[in-house]
UniProtKB/TrEMBL annotation:
<keyword id="KW-0228">DNA excision</keyword>
<dbReference type="InterPro" id="IPR035901">
    <property type="entry name" value="GIY-YIG_endonuc_sf"/>
</dbReference>
<comment type="subunit">
    <text>Interacts with UvrB in an incision complex.</text>
</comment>
<comment type="function">
    <text>The UvrABC repair system catalyzes the recognition and processing of DNA lesions. UvrC both incises the 5' and 3' sides of the lesion. The N-terminal half is responsible for the 3' incision and the C-terminal half is responsible for the 5' incision.</text>
</comment>
<dbReference type="InterPro" id="IPR010994">
    <property type="entry name" value="RuvA_2-like"/>
</dbReference>
<dbReference type="GO" id="GO:0009381">
    <property type="term" value="F:excinuclease ABC activity"/>
</dbReference>
<keyword id="KW-0742">SOS response</keyword>
<dbReference type="InterPro" id="IPR050066">
    <property type="entry name" value="UvrABC_protein_C"/>
</dbReference>
<dbReference type="Pfam" id="PF01541">
    <property type="entry name" value="GIY-YIG"/>
</dbReference>
<dbReference type="InterPro" id="IPR036876">
    <property type="entry name" value="UVR_dom_sf"/>
</dbReference>
<dbReference type="GO" id="GO:0006289">
    <property type="term" value="P:nucleotide-excision repair"/>
</dbReference>
<keyword id="KW-0267">Excision nuclease</keyword>
<feature type="domain" description="GIY-YIG">
    <location>
        <begin position="16"/>
        <end position="94"/>
    </location>
</feature>
<dbReference type="InterPro" id="IPR038476">
    <property type="entry name" value="UvrC_RNase_H_dom_sf"/>
</dbReference>
<protein>
    <recommendedName>
        <fullName>UvrABC system protein C</fullName>
    </recommendedName>
</protein>
<dbReference type="InterPro" id="IPR000305">
    <property type="entry name" value="GIY-YIG_endonuc"/>
</dbReference>
<dbReference type="InterPro" id="IPR001162">
    <property type="entry name" value="UvrC_RNase_H_dom"/>
</dbReference>
Length: 598
């Protein structure tokens, strides 16, 4: 791709250092923000070739001004890029689909700290745990804390002087047992802070210390014959154990690790995050990213990790990921091959896949056109086509030992059956069971007719069969001059292999992919439609070869007899009197005479 002189000059002056670059159009409107390990090489790569992605080519044509910011490391560039994209929202950058604020649990920086939920992250020395993407999880935790540890919820200033001067009186919360009355010195600061320390451990996912403390207290009460108090502590232990059981226990040796995985399609990427603390999964979140310029999974995963770590204030030193990524020297990257860490990664990937499926189902209901466009774009990519297969035709042969050979052609438009366009064919030029010759005949007849009638040709032809049937269909396309003008593939039933003209190595699609499911639907429809027509032809021929050869037995009489007696065999075994009752003596004699002579 050629560049104008201004752009060429700007490219020459770029430094070969890590940093962030920004593209602006002629109106000084920001188009795109990117990060680079080497600014000069990365920016130059946009202008020295024609890109496959049309959107990227449009972006490059609009660029008039290039600005850059140099930083010390690539990690710094990542953080800066993430902040600029979120604040400036350039048109061609990946779109973060999930940018709402989530609630935190706050331990307030004050004497006798309160514990409550908030969406405001205030840097006043208070401790914040979260954020929690599930409101249900947040409220369950707060209820658990209140159940286990009676705390104050008033906003009084419980300074030493105020308590000494008896400025406050205990309220209803004290009398019903929800607070132990620190405002009147019924509870010491030391006792209160011990509960806060336990709450910290609980919020970090460490239940071990809390359970240990409760057990010691329970045994102490029991030894002192305080059985009611011991029972109350035991009930608290059961509450804590039940909550702990809801976490996915992994391995006590795996602690303070973050797991990230990615699932993507043509337009979207879904990045799942699991936080592991003290051997348990304590948080899961999936981030949606909308692609703009065919970004790779590597780029998207790094962007997602930076965003999630920043959003959730993560300080973990190790991350588990599906492939190698560069997150700087301070973060250890693990790509597990087996063991517990591999199982964690698979759990994260499963969560990402299910989240994607849920979103796709919702889109299909709310916006079916968007769903169709996405599926068509995915099929184009998966099948390596030059254009989206909006109009697909699939062919299948049906015959039993060469009898009544027929073929079927089913048509899908925008990924859905168009039954009014289905066609079936009686094989006319082939004698005996020759699937290859039959396929050659029907493909020729189908597209000869479409050409003669000026009807639109399909974007994709699918042949039900392997290389042989595909080769036969190609012969017909060669004769019609359509080779190369219509994409054509063959699908073999055994392993769902896809064959391409001139390529000996088949393509295998993911068994769960939407592209393969649509191809299988086409193949199954063609088989069903062909078999139904084949059975009808056999029945018709059987009837024709029987009753319609008897002089004086017309179609209406034949139909009446078959409705009554169901088959020719049963008709031949029926006494003459019953046939007389149905069609009269004259016709009954002709039928009986036919069976006697046969």
């Amino acid at each position: 791709m050629t560049t104008n002189s201004d752009i060429s000059l700007q490219l020459q002056t770029l430094p070969q250092l890590p940093g962030v670059y920004q593209y602006f159009d002629k109106d000084q409107k920001l188009l795109y923000v990117g990060k680079a390990k080497n600014l000069k090489k990365r920016v130059a790569s946009y202008f020295n070739k024609t890109h496959d992605n049309a959107r990227l080519n449009v972006l490059v044509r609009k660029i008039v001004v290039i600005k850059h910011i140099v930083v010390k490391t690539e990690t710094d560039a990542l953080l800066l890029e993430n902040n600029l994209i979120k604040n400036l929202q350039p048109r061609y950058n990946i779109l973060l689909r999930d940018d709402k604020t989530y609630p935190w649990i706050c331990i307030k920086n004050e004497r006798f700290p309160r514990v409550f939920s908030t969406r405001n992250f205030i840097k006043d020395g208070s401790e914040y745990f979260g954020p929690y993407t599930s409101g249900r999880t947040l409220h369950t935790l707060l209820d658990l804390i209140r159940e286990l540890y009676p705390l104050r919820n008033c906003n009084y200033d419980l300074s030493v002087q105020n308590i000494k001067n008896e400025k406050y009186k205990v309220c209803l919360e004290y009398h019903i047992g929800n607070c132990l009355g620190p405002c009147e010195a019924h509870e010491t600061e030391e006792e209160y802070l011990r509960k806060i320390q336990h709450i910290r451990q609980l919020l970090k996912g460490n239940f071990k210390e809390n359970l240990k403390e409760f057990k010691q207290l329970m045994l102490q009460y029991a030894s002192e014959m305080k059985f009611e108090e011991a029972q109350a502590v035991k009930e608290k232990m059961q509450i804590l154990e039940n909550y702990q059981a809801k976490s996915t226990i992994v391995n006590p040796k795996i602690t303070n690790v973050d797991v990230f995985s990615i699932v993507s399609d043509e337009t979207m990427a879904y990045i799942n995050f699991l936080q592991i603390a003290h051997g348990a999964v304590i948080r899961s979140h999936t981030l949606e990213l909308k692609k703009r310029l065919n970004e790779t999974d590597d780029e998207l995963l790094v962007l997602g990790i930076v965003e999630i770590r920043e959003r959730f204030k993560l300080l973990t030193k190790e991350v588990i990921v599906p492939f190698e990524v560069d997150l700087g020297e301070k973060i250890s990257v693990t790509v597990p091959k087996l063991g517990d860490k591999k199982q964690l990664l698979e759990l994260s990937e499963r969560n990402a896949r299910y989240y994607r499926l849920d979103q796709l189902k919702q889109i299909k209901i709310v916006d079916p056109d968007r769903h169709t466009n996405r599926v068509m774009a995915q099929m184009k990519s998966d099948l390596r086509l030059n254009k989206e297969p909006r109009h697909i035709e699939c062919f299948d042969n049906s015959n039993i030992q060469g009898t009544n050979p027929v073929a079927a052609c089913v048509v899908f438009k925008d990924g859905k059956p168009s039954k009014k366009d289905y066609r079936h064919f009686n094989i006319k030029t082939v004698i005996g069971p020759d699937d290859f010759a039959s396929m050659e005949e029907v493909v020729f007849r189908r597209y000869r007719r479409l050409l003669d009638e000026g009807e639109p040709l399909p974007d994709l032809i699918i042949i039900d069969g392997g290389k042989g049937q595909l080769g036969a269909a190609l012969k017909s396309l060669d004769i019609l001059g359509l080779r190369g003008k219509i994409a054509i593939i063959g699908i073999a039933k055994r392993l769902e292999e896809l064959f391409y003209p001139g390529d000996s190595i088949p393509l295998y699609l993911d068994k769960k992919s939407e592209t393969l499911k649509i191809i299988q639907h086409l193949r199954n429809e063609a088989h069903r439609f062909g078999i139904t027509f084949h059975r009808n032809q056999r029945s018709k021929n059987a009837i024709d070869s029987g009753l319609t050869t008897i002089p004086g037995i017309g179609p209406k009489t034949m139909e009446k007899l078959m409705i009554q007696f169901k088959s020719i065999k049963r008709l031949g075994e029926t006494p003459e009197e019953e046939i007389v009752k149905l069609v009269g003596k004259s016709k009954a004699e002709k039928v009986m005479s036919y069976f006697k002579n046969s």
